[in-house]
Amino acid sequence: MEKVKEEIKCPICNDIGWIFKDNEVVRCECQLFKNTEKLNKALNIPKKYYHANLDNFIPNHPSHHVILTKIKEYIYSDDYLEGKGIFFYGKHGVGKTHLAVSILKEFYFKRGITGLFYDTRILLYDLKSTFEGSSSTRYLLDSVIKAPILVLDDLASERLTDWAKDILHYIIISRYNDKLPVIITSNISLDEEDEIEIVDSIESKFGKGIASRLNEICIPIKVEGEDQRKSPFKEFWKGGKK
């Protein structure tokens, strides 16, 4: 009886689970499917958002269903190949980061693309702490610039130094030139004329050059809704219960 040849599921490692990369043997990306924690770590997702995905995003505003539809259309389109990203903006606690993390995971599961998540403030701190021309700084900066999909969380939420602006300029312009998409969350808008309770804009923080590029490469999506970060304990004690 002729033996049926098993179909190889991973063309990268031929289902061995290991590959030779940069003069060393490393675990193939296909193995990340088998361990959720390893996947989250590979994408640099904070523990707080390990659970986040599109299925467990709870809509609490009429616009959320439209937003979820737009996100799914983006994931299944080829817009990202031209460097098209998304700019989520709105008040704190409305689910912007949850949505951004979900997109990162969907790109991995649906397209096999391993992206990178970074809180902007942590990224700037990590770069600043090693910014002496060391190889670790260069490696970190290169990984952020060259990641197939990059999430920059909480962009420009605080006052930025000239150094911080220069670094963010460099990252955004490098990715813009290489047609690599960036998913951004922010509590400031892309448009100065936006009619919400947001007084700052990307242009006022970074200038016209960056604002113009982000307007070109990012789909602006305003996220509204209830603040999901409100502690249930506050409501408990406000009710006079003990």
Description of the molecule:
The protein has 242 residues and is of the alpha/beta class. The protein is globular. It has helices at residues 36-42, 64-76, 96-111, 120-129, 135-146, 162-177, 202-206, 208-217, 232-238; strands spanning 18-21, 24-27, 85-89, 116-119, 150-153, 182-186, 218-222. The chain is 40% helix and 13% strand. Strands 4-5-6-3-7 form a five-stranded parallel β-sheet, sandwiched between helices. A two-stranded antiparallel ribbon has the order 1-2.
Total strand count, please? Answer: 7
Give me the Rg, rounded: 20 Å
Please give the largest β-sheet: 5 strands, parallel
Uncertain parts: 1-5, 195-199, 233-238
**Proportion in β-strands:** 5-15%
In one word, what is the shape? globular
- SSE pattern: EEHHEHEHHEHEHHEH
Strand order across the largest sheet: 4-5-6-3-7
Structural class: alpha/beta
User: Which bin fits the share of residues in helices?
Assistant: 25-40%
| Terminus-to-terminus distance | 73 Å
Number of helices: 9
Average per-residue pLDDT, rounded, comes to 82
What is this entry, summarized?
With 242 residues, the chain is an alpha/beta fold.
Please outline the helices and strands:
Elements: E1 18-21, E2 24-27, H1 36-42, H2 64-76, E3 85-89, H3 96-111, E4 116-119, H4 120-129, H5 135-146, E5 150-153, H6 162-177, E6 182-186, H7 202-206, H8 208-217, E7 218-222, H9 232-238
Parallel strand pairs: 3-6, 3-7, 4-5, 5-6
Antiparallel strand pairs: 1-2
Characteristic terms for this protein:
disordered N terminus; five-stranded parallel β-sheet; alpha/beta; 242 residues; single chain; 9 helices
